[in-house]
Predict the 3D structure of the following.
Amino acid sequence: MAIRKSDRFPNRVPLAALALLLNLLAFPLFAQTGQPNLTLLKQFYDSQQFAMSVELGREMLGHGENLDSEKLSAIHHYLGLAFFNLGERDSARVHFLSLLSLEPQFALDPVEISPKIQTFFEDIRAELSANRVATPAFTRYVMTADPRPSAFWRSAVFPGWGQVFKQQKKRGVVLGLVVFGSAAATGVSWLQERDARDSYNAASDPLAIASAYDDYNHWYKIRRNMGLATALAWFWNVADAAWRGGNMPQMTVNNTGDGLRVGLSLNLP
């Protein structure tokens, strides 16, 4: 018996239901990895699965230690939009306020976002600018400058200075002593090599020439190795100043009179 097309793919299983099933399967995979997935969050919102957007967005905020300011902005953006579409204006306001604390100049896309949400968002911006926010506690992000770029050039000029600038005094002292100690040893070995070379050039007796050459060659190798050690120590000192301290911000939470204040600062051991 021939199988009709309608029997192979019953109409009672619409494509929309399949899409929802795939999204529901994808969400546990995200939860297992514990890694933020902005693409999935956007897909939930674009497919008008606002409740799923809220659930995923909240899960992502729970991984704050793995989020930079750009990802945090995107999460609060979609959470604000999702809550607005769910009719929960207070929750939408909280997330839009958090978004604006991260990016005061942020603007919604007029092509994709309805005028009603645009007006709501701009009213919140005006309230925040005028310091007339009456919303209960919201997450206010206080961004601190990354000290690593300044630490980089400081350690390049004076080894250990960048680490001290990052409040890593002991580490800076140790690295500085290693670099300067290697440089001093290189200088001493260069002086010894120079004297040994002069003695070798002045020698006339065959036995004295052989002995002077061995001495000269000995100090040449020491000077060369100490020079290489100095270069490596200086490079390590600069690289440490540029990279050590964590690539991601670390959130610290404090309760203040104007609500929950979350400060982002670099984790500098």
